[in-house]
Amino acid sequence: MNPGEKLYQLRLRLGITTREVEEYSRRIAEGEGRDNFYISNTRLTQLENENSNPSIYKLYSLSVIYRVKLTELFASFGIDMSKTAHYQAMFPMEKTHLASIEAASDQRVAFPIRFDPGLNPLKTSLVSRMVELWGEMPIALMASLNFAHNQFGYIGLNDYSLYPLLRPGSFVQIDSRLKEVLLSGWRTEVERPIYFIELRDGYSCCWCEITRGQLILIPHPLSGCGIRQYEYPREAEILGRVVGVAMRLVNDSEPRPLETPRLPRRS
C-alpha cells in the first residue's frame, strides 16, 4: 500500500470526508497559530491520489485527526523511526551531552516487574535468576543493547572484587559471545577485559587469567579481596565479557555533605 492509499484507508475507516479533514485541520492551525497545520481539501486529495509528500506539520494534523501515531504515518512515507537509536550509535558525539529516550517504536521487551523475594542482594547473580515476574515495556532506545547475545548481571552488595572500578549494587551487560580470556592488548586497568563467571556456589565478576587448567579470578588491587583459583572448566564457567555497566556513584546510605557555615555579618 502506497502512502496515498494508506491515508485514504485511514480516512475511510473513520467515515469522514476530505471537507471534514479540512475543517478539523483548520481548528488545529488556529489553535497552534500557524497556517502550516492546515490541510485544504485540494491538498488532501492530492496526497491521497498522487506521489506527494506532506510537511511535518500536515502529518501532525493527520495523526491527530486519524487517531494514529505520528511514527506510523512516518513509516507510511518510508521513515522508520525504530532505527533512530541504530543510526545515533553510528555517529557518536565527541562532546558530553544528554541523551533523550524517544518511544518511537512499538516493539516491546521483557522487563523485570517483581524480584524473587528469596534473592540475596549481597551476592552477585544473573538478573534472570533474580526475577520472579517479567512484564513487557517499550524497547525504543534499548534496541541497541542487542538482547539476542546479552545477559545482565547484578554485582552483590558484598562483592567488592573490582571496587572501586565496579561498585557493589551495579548492573552489568554481558556479551555471551565474548568468552575467550584475553591476556594482553590493554594499556590500563580500565581497558582490561572484565568477565562474568558462574561458580558452583554463585557468580563472580572480575578480571581473569587461565593457566594450566586453572581459572584465576583477579580482584582490583584496591579492593582488599584475594585472588581465587578454580579448575577450569569443571569448577567455573565464563558466561561472557562485561561490555556495559549501570552504576550509582553515590549510595543512599552515604552521609550528605555538611553545609558550609555562614559567617556572621559585620555590623
Strand segment tally: 10
* Shape, principal axes of CA atoms: elongated
Low-confidence blocks of residues: 136-141, 254-258
Largest sheet geometry = 8 strands, antiparallel
Widest sheet: strand ordering: 2-4-5-10-6-7-8-9
How confident is the prediction overall: mean pLDDT? 81
- In N-to-C order, the SSE pattern is HHHHHHEEHEEEEEEEE
- Rg (C-alpha, Å): 28 Å
Structure, explained:
This protein has 267 residues and is of the alpha+beta class. Among the domains are: 3-79, 434 Repressor (Amino-terminal Domain), CATH 1.10.260; 121-127 and 146-246, Umud Fragment, subunit A. It is 24% helix and 24% strand. Strand 7 and strand 8 (214-218) form a beta hairpin. The N and C termini lie far apart (82 Å). Mean pLDDT is 81; it is low at 136-141 and 254-258.
